[in-house]
Structure formats: C-alpha cells, structure tokens
Design a protein that fits this description.
Elements lengths: L7 H20 L4 H14 L3 H11 L2 H22 L6 H21 L1 H12 L4 H13 L21 H15 L4 E6 L6 H9 L2 H6 L2 E6 L5 H11 L10 H15 L4 E6 L6 H5 L9 E7 L9 E3 L5 H12 L11 H10 L4 H11 L4 H12 L8 H12 L6 H9 L9 E2 H11 L7 H12 L4 E4 L15 E4 L2 H11 L9 E6 L6 H4 L9 E6 L17 E6 L7 E3 L12 E6 L5 E4 L10 E5 L1 E3 L1 H4 L9 E5 L2 E2 L1 H4 L5 H4 L5 E5 L19 E5 L19 E3 L21 E3 L21 E3 L21 E4 L1 H7 L10 E4 L12
Parallel strand pairs: 1-4, 1-5, 2-3, 3-4, 9-10, 10-11, 11-13, 12-14, 13-15, 14-16, 15-17, 16-18, 17-19, 19-20, 20-21, 21-22, 22-23, 23-24, 24-25
Antiparallel strand pairs: 6-8, 7-8
Length: about 800
C-alpha cells in the first residue's frame, strides 16, 4: 500500500539549491553575474517557499509540487556543471551562461504568483493571482457541503458557570500535558459538552500547541469515511479505501506523517456501543497525539473522564440574564421571580435556556407569563434522554405563536447529520413546499430566524458575501447538531407512517423498514428524505407518494466511481416540485434513470454528480424553472452532440453552475431558452467563454461569473441584454477587456468587478449606462470610475479593500 504524501521534498530541493548558489557567489568568480541574479531570485522566494508547500498540500496538488521540485533539482545540476567548466573554455562558459540566464527566467515564471505576493505585501494590495488560490481552496474545503470539513466549528463568545469553567481549565491542562492520552467528556444531552470542546479547540494555548486539530462528529461511526476526510483535511490525495482494516492502515500512515507535530483529534458524540471504534484511533508510538471524546456515556477503559452536569440554579440564572438582555428601554426587565421559574422549567440545560431566552427577547411580561404556564404543564423530573427531548420540545412548541418556526426546524432533519446544508438547497425546498417567492427571500428570512433562536448554525464561507444583492446565497450554509437533529427527527416521526407530513428515512446497507415492503396505502408525506450509505445496492422497492412535493436523496460511496439510480417511484409522484440529489462521498458518482423525472418538477439540484447532459437533453422538463449543478462533472463530449437543452427545459428561469471545474463552455442551444432570467456560473476555473449568441437571452436579469478565472473576454452580443440588472465578473482574473457593446445594457444597475486586476481600461460606451447605481471594485480600479461620476450622477463606487495577509489559508 502506498500513499502519496507529497510536499516535504520541495523544501529540501530548494534549500540545497539556495545553499549551493550562495556558496558559489562567495567562492567562485566565474558566472558571477548570472549566479548572483539567481541568488537574488531565490532570496525573494525563500520567505514563502514553505507557504507554497502548505497551499499545495491543502489543494491536493502533488504533481505541481513535483514540477517545482524538478525545477530546483535542474538548477542544482546546472550550477554543479558550471563549476566543472575550465575557466579557459570560453565556448562552454558562454553556453552555460545562457543556460543560467534561461534558468533564472524559468524560475521567475514558475514563481510569479508568489513573487507578486511579496510585492503585494509591500504595497498593501492583494493581487489578482492570490484570489485564484483562494477560490480553489474554497472549492475543496468546507465551504461546500459534500465532503464535509474537520475544522473545529465556531465557539460561543462566552461560557457560564463556575463548574463549567473549572472543567474547561482541567481539560485544557490535560491537553497541554505531555504524552499520549484519551480524554473523555461525558454528560447528558443538552449540557454543553460539545460547546465546551469547541471552545477548547479555539483556545489560544491549545491552538498554539496543536498544529493539527481535527473535529469529527461520530454518532454513526464510519471509519473509512472519517479517515478519507482526515486525509483530505491535511491536504493529501484521497485514496479509495475498501475495508476498515485498510482504513486503520491509512490512518496510521497519516498520523505518522503529520504526527511530527502535536495532533488533537476530537471525536464528538460517540455512542456507548462504539468502544471498538475508538480503539482503532489509538497509536501508542506517536509522541504527542491526543484524542478528546465527547459522549453521553462513560468509557471505563479510558481515562481521565470529565463529567459535566446541568448548570446550578445560580449559573442558569446568569446564563438566562445574559442571553435575554436587550437594549430596549420600552420593555421592562423581567423580575427575579419570573426568571427563577423559567430556569426551573429548563432543568438547568444550557441549550434549552438559550433557545427560550431568544424567544423571550423584547417581549412584555404578559407574554413571558403565558409561555411559562404552557411550559410548566406536566412538570416532572428529567431522568432519561427522552425526558430531555420532551422537555426541549415543550419549549419549542409555539415559541411566539408562529408555527412556521417549528415547521422549518423539522425540515432541517431531512439532511444528514453534521453536514453543511447549502442555503440554496433549503430555499429550493421551502419555496415549493410553502409557496414562497421564486428568489427565496422569505426562505432566507426564515433561515435567519432559526439561527437567531439557536435552532441552527449559519456558516458563511466567503467574505463580503453580505453584499449578495442578487439573492444567490451560494456561500451560506446551515448546520444542525446532535440534540437538535434528534429533536427534529423525533417530531417528524410522530404518528402513523402513512399520515406523517415528513418521511425521513436512513437506510443502512440493504435494509428497508418493515412497513415499506408491507405498504398497503399511499403515504401522505409532502416532504420525503431518503439517505443511503456506501453499501446500498438493492433495487428500489415501490413507494406511493401522491402528495410528495419535495424529495431529497442523500447517498455516499467509498468507490471512486459509482452509479446511483433514481428510484422508479419518482415517475408516479405527480405533485413533486423539488428534487435534491446529493452525493456525500469524496468521489463523483454517475446518476442514471433520468427518464423517471416528471414534467411537473420546478427545481432540481444535483451535487457531486457526473452529469449526463446528453440524457437530460432528451427529457421533457417543461415545468422546470431552476436547475443547479454543484461540484458536478459535466460531460463536455455530450455537449458536442445534438443536445436540445432548450427543448428539454423551455421554461427555465434560472441556471446555476458552481464549482464544476471541468466545465469549459456552455452549449449554444442554451441561448434559445427565452425565459431565462438568471445565469450563474461561479468558481468554474476552466470555464473560458460564454456562447457568442448570449445576446439572444433577452430576459436575462442577472449574470454571475464570479471566480471564473480562465474567462478572458465577454462576447459582443452581451450588449443586447436590455433587461440585465446585475453583472458580476468579480475575480475573473484573466478578463482584460469589456466589449464596447456593454454600453447598450440600458437596465444595468450594478456591476461587481472586484478582483479583475487585468481589466485596466473601461470601454468609452460605459458612460451610456445611465441606470448604473453601484460599482464594486478594488482601490486601483476605482480611479478609472471616479471621472465617470460626472456623467453618471447616481453612481456609487464601493471600494473593497482586503488586508494583504495569508490568514485565510490557515482557517
């Protein structure tokens, strides 16, 4: 078994060359000017050669590292040859002087991006090449939900309770001690053990010691999947892992590689039957490798064990006060007696206290009393996990009279646990289920309401995404953690299967619930979610889903390529409006059986799928309004055939393609979809050209080409887009000109051209954009816009400045 953990050799090769060149400059007169020039070039590279290694680790680019190493080896060999040339051999001296000059030029070309980074540090500017690296990192790391991310989640601003603070200090001391150990943190659900460990992972001293911190949510342990993510998190090429024994060997190889520096592995929410699973992570030969386990159960074979308890009454009161306090003089502060009663109803559970506090903020005393009376009904001692869940449920029901909060909360259970849920997937689902506006503005408002109430966590993976005026929200993700998801699932599973509004199924191997095979009557669920693991292979049994409006299919595989078949029962689901298919493995999978998709579908979202556009061109998706491809492999060969996308989707309003790195162009036929309003092609780094006929899409209102780094020009026909309101060409690093026809886009109100560092000249026709209200650009481009304010009186120029540092690479 071999694993390609490339990287360290580059630094070694560079150091050897640099040392040799410095020695030659000091001791050898021949080739002096050429070698001094090479020394100067290497001196510029030296401060950041380690960062090159780090970037490429994170980007899984061992071949690029190999190219740079070969270049260093080539230089060392060339300098050594020059040392062996006799001073009087003028012919060879001349020939090798030229070779040294050529080598210096080659080094400059290869390291141009990093040399310009040094200039950027001096000038206080972040140049265009860095953004390409940034976007590539975003495409491979946590911003995207499919592969997951093992970075420690964000921690709260504060923790409350003397006992909690004491536990924090105690566990911190255990982590900073020398030696290998497994540290267990145990508590009933809702007591804050995960929050405590998150806080530890972000502690300055802990981060200072542990260079490698990995946070894994376990619950349903899958060793192969976890090891693959650990390998990816540390920047290495992800192997195919067939068995658990192979996973253990790969894990050992990984830890041996990164274990030269202290490693902290957090295994969060481990269940009692997972003792043998935990044992596979122990390797006694590693010097400073620590494992923190959070669990509702103790593991007697491991020590030390740290117990967390519900907050004391006094600490619970403090947490409630700090969370419920608002700066609103019109609302009388609650009296101590009322606060005391609410704390008692929450059983000292920190999570329940924060959720309740959010629901009470800004409300008057009568509202507090009303809710307290509801929560106090059936008051009893909490002894079991089910009691805790029931206690929390009581606080959630009708938090402030808006039943939609609980509905949206339960919908989050449709996605796998501990996965980032794209906000766009939620909006696609909610728009159809609840008949909301097409752009999902209300859906996003509902999402923020959940986050505000501590019922979900919102993660924004890209800076300045708050300026997302076109409502794409492509960099917004949601997470729902253990206890919350358990509560959502518990609520969804109430009542008879046939009468449930939501049907959420987790299929393990080829095991189906008994009721499925015995189904006697149609199911009444409007939302159906089915998740399968990597061993699923059984043909789909039939399901009758006459009322289903949204279907979510989640699957994973440990194979590099696997075929996933859409279930036949989709064809008979006549009311189905939204289909979301997500591959949660690290490898793309083929998707077959497209013919079952009906003409009533309005929204389709595919993630990490090998997309057969040729097959889709033969479909009859006449009701389809939006289709999204995320991290998909779009088969370019199929686009060369007679694919009539316009015939398959004649009423399409929005086309989203993001992080599809093999996308080079679009089929010309797309320009015949006359109703298309939004065209979003973002972070597709090989996308090089829009169709020349783009001007035929007369209904287009939004065109987003954010971070299409290979795009060099826009077609002239873009001037025919008379209804275009927003053009986003931010971080199009190779875009050097805009066509003069841009001035014909009379409805254009907003342009985002941040990061277009090669776009130095604006076409003269730009003064005709009388509707233009806002331009977002970098400082150096603002200079080209300021003179236009005399002609464009309503123009606002927003200058986006970024600090020239590399901290984002280490996030």
């Amino acid at each position: 078994m071999s694993v390609d953990f490339a990287g360290a050799a580059l630094r070694t090769a560079f150091s050897e060359l640099f040392s040799l060149v410095k020695d030659v400059v000091r001791t050898v007169a021949a080739f002096g000017p050429q070698v001094k020039k090479i020394k100067s070039t290497l001196s510029k590279i030296d401060p950041i050669i380690a960062e090159i290694d780090e970037y490429n680790k994170r980007l899984c680019r061992p071949r690029e590292l190999g190219t740079l190493k070969d270049l260093m080896d080539k230089g060392r060999g060339l300098v050594n040859k020059c040392l062996r040339i006799h001073p009087l051999n003028l012919c060879k001296k001349y020939m090798h002087s030229n070779k040294l000059t050529e080598f210096d030029a080659e080094v400059l070309r290869e390291f141009q991006i990093y040399i310009q980074l040094l200039d950027a540090r001096k000038n206080g500017e972040m140049l265009w090449e860095i953004r390409e690296v940034k976007e590539l990192i975003h495409s491979l790391q946590s911003g995207l939900g499919a592969s997951g991310n093992l970075a420690a989640p964000e921690a709260p601003d504060f923790i409350v309770g003397s006992e909690v603070e004491e536990s924090f200090r105690k566990i911190k001391d255990q982590l900073l001690e020398e030696g290998v150990s497994v540290i267990v943190v145990t508590a009933p659900p809702g007591c804050g053990k995960t929050v405590l460990v998150k806080k530890l992972c972000h502690d300055v001293d802990i981060k200072g010691k542990f260079r490698h911190i990995m946070f894994v949510h376990v619950k349903e342990p899958n060793l192969r999947d976890i090891v693959q993510k650990m390998i990816q998190q540390n920047g290495f090429a992800v192997p195919v892992i067939e068995t658990e024994d192979d996973a253990v060997q790969y894990l050992q190889l990984l830890l041996q590689k990164i274990g030269q520096n202290p490693v902290l592995l957090v295994l969060d929410d481990v269940w009692t039957e997972s003792q043998s699973f935990l044992d596979k992570f122990k390797f006694s030969k590693l010097k400073d490798y620590k494992i923190v386990v959070t669990s509702r159960h103790e593991f007697p074979t491991y020590s030390p064990v740290n117990h967390l308890n519900p907050l004391t009454h006094g600490d619970a009161l403090e947490l409630l006060r700090r969370t419920v306090t608002v700066d609103d003089s019109s609302v009388d502060p609650p009296d101590e007696k009322l606060l005391d009663q609410i704390v008692k109803s929450c059983k000292g559970l920190p999570w329940a206290l924060t959720v309740v506090a959010k629901s009470l903020q800004g409300k008057d005393r009568s509202f507090w009393i009303e809710k307290l009376n509801i929560w106090s009904e059936g008051h009893s001692r909490v002894n079991t996990d089910i009691d805790i869940l029931n206690c929390l449920k009581k606080h959630l029901d009708n938090l402030d009279g808006d039943s939609s909060i609980m509905e949206r909360f339960m919908d989050l259970g449709s996605f796998p646990e501990d996965r980032k849920i794209p906000a766009t997937a939620l909006t696609d689902m909610w728009v159809e289920l609840y008949k909301l506006d097409f752009d999902g503005v209300r859906a996003i408002a509902d999402l923020h309401d959940l986050v505000y109430r501590n019922l979900a966590d919102l993660i924004v993976t890209r800076r300045n995404s708050s300026d997302d005026d076109d409502k794409s929200y492509s960099s917004h993700y949601v997470m729902q953690y253990g206890l919350l998801r358990e509560l959502a699932i518990m609520e969804c599973n109430q009542g008879e299967v046939e009468k449930r509004e939501r049907l959420i199924l987790q299929l393990t191997e080829n095991s189906f619930p008994d009721w499925w095979s015995k189904q006697q009557q149609p199911l009444g669920a409007r939302l159906v979610s089915i998740s399968t693991d990597g061993t699923f292979s059984t043909p789909w049994p039939n399901l009758e889903l006459p009322k289903a409006e949204a279907l979510i299919l989640n699957f994973s595989t440990n194979m590099e390529t696997k075929t996933y078949v859409l279930p036949e029962f989709i064809e008979k689901a006549d009311k189905l409006k939204a289909l979301i298919v997500t591959n949660y493995s690290l490898f793309s999978a083929e998707l077959n059986n497209f013919h079952v998709i009906g003409s009533n579908l309005k929204r389709i979202r595919l993630e990490r799928i090998i997309v057969p556009l040729l097959s889709m061109g033969k479909l009859h998706l006449h009701g389809l309004q939006k289709i999204s491809f995320c991290m998909c492999e779009i088969n370019q060969a199929s686009m060369l055939n007679d694919v009539k996308i316009s015939d398959a989707m004649p009423n399409l309003l929005e086309l989203d393609i993001e992080y599809c790195n093999n996308l080079v162009t679009l089929p010309d036929d797309i320009c015949r979809i006359k109703f298309l309003r939004k065209l979003n092609i973002t972070n597709c780094h090989n996308f090089s050209a829009l169709p020349e006929q783009i001007g035929q899409l007369v209904s287009l209102e939004v065109v987003r080409l954010d971070s299409c780094t290979n795009l060099s020009q826009l077609p002239d026909s873009i001037g025919s887009l008379q209804n275009l309101r927003f053009l986003d060409i931010s971080d199009c690093l190779n875009l050097s000109t805009l066509p003069d026809e841009v001035g014909q886009m009379i409805s254009l109100t907003r342009i985002n051209m941040r990061g277009c560092m090669r776009l130095s000249v604006l076409p003269p026709s730009i003064v005709k954009l009388t509707s233009l209200r806002k331009v977002i650009c970098d400082k150096e481009k603002a200079v080209t816009w300021w003179p236009l304010k005399e002609s464009l009186n309503s123009l606002q120029i927003e200058v986006v400045e970024e600090e020239p540092n590399l901290d984002w690479l280490r996030d």
